Amino acid sequence: MSNHSTTATTATPPPAMSAVARDLMSRIERKTAVIGVVGLGYVGLPLVRAIRDSGFPVIGFDVDERKIKALRSGERYIFHLGDTFFAELRDDKAFTPTSNPTDLRGADVILLCVPTPLGPHREPDLLYVIESTKTVATVLREGQLVVLESTTYPGTTRDEMKPILDARGLTCGEQYFLAYSPEREDPGSMGRSAQHIPKLVGGVDDVATELAMAFYSRVVKEAHRVSSAEVAESAKLLENIYRAVNIALVNELKLVLTDMNIDVWEVIAAASTKPFGFQAFYPGPGLGGHCIPIDPFYLTWKARAIGRTTRFIELAGEINTSMPHYVIDRVQHALNDDGKALKGAKVLVLGIAYKKNIDDPRESPSAEILELLRDRGADVSYHDPHLPKFPSMRKYRVDLDSVALSAATLAASDCVLIVTDHDAVDYAMVGEHARLVVDTRNAMNRVPAGRMRCRLVKS
To answer: What is the pLDDT of residue 2?
Structure first.
């Protein structure tokens, strides 16, 4: 049995299981079940690590042949996972990377870890979920458990995925099984690897929940049972809406306090001394990553479909999406104070990843900030120790390579704009050699006063 823990909202007797379900349960308990992971990106690959570390054999599937080739050669393509992990995967006989969907027929449990972006009008784009479900349907056989991990609106697993899988001719709950367990990745954060983050588990029926609980409780430190897939889908949205609303709150507070010449970072630190009733959130140049800028709007869309409005979520979205424009205004005013126009000014952007110490640029506000700077005539360059070339993004195309960070580079810049506060950046050198620094992350707070020769503007 697993040493990991399980929790449940209520104690319920085990559901009656078909012979197919009992056989799958036995393989899960003995860890002879083969696990298929669909999507080998920032969510799927850390999950692969957790699964193989727990002793299950793994098939990793991705339509991107470049990732499969990289895995077979041990080449790292996600920075924060480290070189050692990719070398281990290359040499692990229990891990099979593939771009051939028929290989998934050999998996007993199939986990879908695919993107769920927004469309042009902030509507849910389920293309990757639907296409990956269709792929699984082509190989679906008796005795397989399919679990969606992608963040989505309530009802996706039951109403969108199940009909596609049912069309295969198998009976859900008896011959195949379907559940939802949202990913909770926090890339680059120490002590928050996939196996240490509790998992929510909810099936479209009790049998699927029981099977998924049996699997996840052997992979992660804690698995928490909920009553349905819809509860798990909603809980994931609530987690990210909570963060989006509170970040919007401190972003709005930053605008007000800055106009009052009050340091919002000091205010937050002061409020954080209260041991109850307050949790610190921090302002920034805009939201990034695949969760907080996107997931709340999955619920706003679903709410409109049932005739409801979500005013808190939509207001938070308005505030957070306006932050890149505020940052540009701060840069422009800071340059004006030095007698320079933004047009023609040399602006060096530090950090383009959406958060510190990772190489993930998804939805990063840096792309919009760079575009706005260029639109206003600035001569823009960037430095990011983890992203040597600005990657292609859904909405933006920035043809730039990272420049070396040196005393000469800093001195030649009219303004240094800190967008992402990577630890690998020498902020003391920035403080010594830059003329003007606009800091959206409070990164310069770590520089000793004696080494701060630049003019610092907090934004």
So the answer is: 47
**CB distance 199 to 224 below 8 Å:** yes
What residues contact 211, with CB distance under 8 A and at least 6 apart? Answer: 21, 24, 25, 28, 145, 177, 179, 203
Q: Show me where the domains of the chain are located.
A: 5-227, 243-458
Residue 441, pLDDT above cutoff 50: yes
8-state DSSP, 236: H
Annotate 416-452 with b (16+ C-beta within 10 A) or e (fewer): bbbbbbbeebebeebbbbbbbbbbbbbbbeebeeeeb
Sign of CA dihedral 30, 34, 40, 44: negative
Give CA–CA dist 220/136, Å, rounded.
Answer: 24
Instruction: Say what the pLDDT of residue 243 is.
Output: 94
Contact 99, 61 (CB under 8 A): yes
Which ranges constitute the DSSP H helices of 167-310?
206-216, 229-259, 264-271, 296-305
Q: How many Å apart are CA 425 and CA 305, to the nearest integer?
A: 46
Answer whether 95's CB lies under 8 Å from 48's CB: yes
CATH 3.40.50.720 assigned to domain 243-458? The reply is yes
204 in Cβ contact with 162 (< 8 Å): yes
Residue the block writes with tokens 């098939």? 59
CATH architecture under which domain 5-227 falls = 3-Layer(aba) Sandwich (3.40)
What six digits make up the tokens of 321?
Answer: 């999406």
CA distance 432 to 450: 9
Instruction: Name residues whose C-beta falls within 8 Å of residue 446's C-beta, 6 or more positions apart in sequence.
Output: 427
List residues with catalytic annotation.
Answer: 291
Distance (Å, whole) CA 405 – CA 256: 33
pTM of the model: 0.91
* Mean pLDDT value of segment 241-251: 95
Whether 133 shows a pLDDT value over 90: the answer reads yes
Q: Token pair for residue 441?
A: 């992350």
DSSP state of 101: G
Six token digits for residue 43: 């969510």
Q: Give yes or no on whether 5-227 and 243-458 have one common fold.
A: yes
120: exposed, middle or buried (Cβ count in 10 Å: 0-12, 13-18, 19+): exposed
* Single-letter code of the amino acid located at 199: K
3-class DSSP string for 133-192: HHHHHHHCCCCEEEEECCCCCCCHHHHHHHHHHHCCCCCECCCEEEEECCCCCCCCCCCC
